[in-house]
Amino acid sequence: MRAVLVGPPGAGKGTQAQILASELSIPKVSTGDIFRANVSGGTELGKRAKSYMDRGDLVPDEVTNEMVRARLGEPDAREGFLLDGFPRNVAQAETLDGMLKEMGSALDAVLELKVDEDEVVKRLSGRRSCRECGRVYHLDYDPPAEEGVCDACGGELYQRDDDREDVIRHRLQVYREQTEPLVAFYADKGVLVTIEAIGEVTEVTGRALAALGTGS
Ligand code: AP5
Ligand code: ZN
User: What residues does the Adenylate kinase active site lid domain cover (predicted)?
Assistant: First the structure.
C-alpha cells in the first residue's frame, strides 16, 4: 500500500504512522523525523532546515522534495510506504504524483486525521519524544513508566523546540493556509478517507485500518 497521513500538528500522525506501518508491514516515512535526525546530527540538510522548523514554517519545497525522492527510491519503499508529514502543500503533492508516475505507481489512499485545535494544543504541550528511538509519549495521556525515560529503549525524553505555545499557534496557521487545501485536492482524485482522531490511540488505529480497507 502507498498511503499518506494528513492532519494538523498534534493530530497523532506520528503515533498512528508508527503503529499502522508495522501493522501493514510497510516503512513509515516521516519528513519531520528525517529533518530532526539531520538537525541533531548537524548535517548540511539539518542546518538548512533548522530555522524554518524552529519558527514552525515549512522547509522550502526543493529541499523537502529531493529528500523524499531519495527516501522513496530506497529498496524498502519500492513495494509501499506510509508518508507522515509529506506532502504539506499542493506543490509537494503534485511533485509526489510526478515521482510516483515515474515509478509506474500511484497513491492508494490519503487518510485525514480530524481533531479540533484545543485538543491539538493540549496534545502538543504535553508531548515528550525519545532522543534515541523517536517513540512519542504524552505526560497525561500516555506517560512513560519512569519520568524522562523511554520505556522502549531507555533513551532520554525531551520536549521539541517547536512545541512552545506561540510556535504551535503558528504551525496551526500554516496548516490551515498551506496544508488543508490538500484535503480537497485528494478528495477530487477519489483517494481521500477521513476519520475522527479523538479517543484512545487503539480506537483511532481501528478506525484507520477500517478506513484503509485493511481492518477486520
Ligand atoms: P512534523 O514533525 O511533521 O510535525 P507536525 O505535522 O507539526 O506534526 P507533529 O509531529 O507535531 O504531530 P503528530 O500529528 O505527528 O502528532 P503525534 O503523534 O506526535 O514537522 C515538524 C516541522 O518539520 C514542520 O513544522 C516543518 O518545519 C518541517 N517539515 C516536516 N515535513 C515537512 C514538509 N513536508 N515540508 C516542509 N517542511 C516540513 O501526537 C502528538 C501528541 O499527542 C503526543 O504526545 C501523543 O502521545 C499524543 N496523542 C497521540 N494520539 C493521541 C490520542 N488518540 N489521544 C491522546 N493523545 C494522543
Ligand atoms: Zn526510545
Answer: 127-162
Burial pattern 112-132, b for ≥16 Cβ within 10 A else e, equals bbebeeeebbebbebbbbbee
> DSSP code of 102?
H
Residues 12 and 123: beta-carbon distance below 8 Å: yes
Residue recorded with cell 504539506 = 88
Considering only CA atoms, which residue is closest to atom 41 of ligand 1?
123
ipTM of the complex: 0.96
CA torsion 96-97-100-102 (nearest 10°) is -110
CA distance 153 to 155: 5
28, 123, 171, 207: the catalytic one is 171
Q: Which of 57, 130, 142, 157 to mutate to test the pocket of ligand 1 (most atoms within 8 A of CB)?
A: 142
CATH architecture type of domain 2-211? 3-Layer(aba) Sandwich (3.40)
Split at pLDDT 50, 70, 90, the class of 215 is low
Domain spans in the chain, listed from the N-terminal domain onward: 2-211
The residues that bridge with 114 in the sheet, in sequence order, are 196
Summarize pLDDT for 23-48 with one digit per residue, the tens.
Answer: 999 999 999 999 999 999 999 999 99
Quote the Cα angle for 99-14-196, to 5°: 100
pLDDT in tens, 85-134: 999 999 999 999 999 999 999 999 999 999 999 999 999 999 999 999 88
